[in-house]
Design brief:
2 domains; 8-stranded parallel sheet; 46% helix
Amino acid sequence: MGFISKDEHAKLIGAERDSARTPLPLQMVSSDEFLPSPRSAKQEEVGRRLAGMADDIGAGLGLSRRRFFQTAAGMAAAFVAMNETYGGELFAATPDEARSPEDARAKADLLSTQFVIDVHTHFVRDDYLSGMAVGTPFPWRKAIKELAWNPEVTDTTVEGAKFANYHKEIYLDSDTKVALISSIPGIGTALMPLTNQQMAEARDTVNRQADSRRMLSHGLFAPGAPGWSDDLDAAIALKPDSWKGYTIGSLGLDEQHRPTRLYPWRMDGADAYRAYEKMAKSGITTVCVHKGLFPPSLERQLPQLRGFADVADVGQAAKDWPHLNFIVYHAGYRHTDDPSGALSDPEVALHEFERTGRLSWVSDLADIPAQYGVNNVYADLGQVFALTMIAQPRVCAAMMGILVRGLGASRVCWGTDAVWTGSPQWQIEGLRRLEIPEDMRRRHRFAPLGSATGPVKRAIFTENSARLYGLDESVRGTVLNDKLALAKADYERSGRTPSNLQYGYVAP
């Protein structure tokens, strides 16, 4: 967050206020970490095809367009529209599935028990950036107490990024079983969506009410920032499940009180190594680091951050600290741009891939195990799975092929950056259905991704994060039968009502 300027913000629209409430977003949604591309001609075509199917199929079933979009058949129709628009069979979806709500629901029910672990989610505290005094009692505690298991929570305003709606979008309207709550380091707590203390309290409250381990939490660290070492000691006392840092620095304000980044650091730098030493001694050994989402346009604006945004510092850190696991968020995706403005970012990325067989910084990340002889480097998919799948699914397929080929399926973790992109269910459906096209597999030596429950996707959705976070079979069994599972079953029986909204920003 914090890279979209005030002038750029003025040109954007809140995604929840510009939504057709389709099962998939019809354009790129940004969390404020990058400027979203306007809706492309292809995305317009997806929207027209999907609307046509909704009117055709929905009318025959006596369903309004919006109600059809809330069904499993509506989700299938969205992927049929994607296939018809982008060519080939990128997604496992057929017109027959879209035309049969009963069959589509039965298929969805079979997959609903899949143990999906999302290691990249967000909500914001009620007083975020509101000017309320630091230390004010957390208003979202009341929301947790009164609304946490209430299936009627349907807030569709800017409140959508707060806890009550987060709970519905993550735990009721998606197949996510365990979510890791994250935040962003800031100079002063006013700029942080959640503090370390708030993340730990949210985790503990959710897990106590569910009577199982449904939420994990990050501990933020910022090597080189004022007081960082003492802050890390305080975070260790909260026993986070893993760490989160931003090498591009902590959120701060410049002389004109505009958001900027302060105190950037390198993963292979001296301060970072002092932090790793503390982490290793604490026994909390999973280190998540934001990388990428740094287009050339942003480099021109903030050239001093270029050397901190890429993945060039990952390999040496991983080699020097073999007992730590490093998860690179957003898979390091560069987020290229087109100076002429004629092409959206993923189309530029597709041209790059077709010309070179590489994606900026993603390929660099995938090369690290072979270059450095390490096996402790992971990729989190984060925002880039969502933006590439929606804007150019062949880039999404290429990214998955590059990561699985270079890191191995056992080193790719599922993360969605929800709730900025709404309920993560559409992304879960996307990976379940996605396949790398045969021509791409043949030319680039990519292995197939396989079925929704096959070994590659099972590793990404479940096994890798379960190993990192100690979610063994006994823990998973408890989660599948806890109080939240009972609440979700009641919600499903009463007739699920997904909002099909997103809560970030879109370009009009």
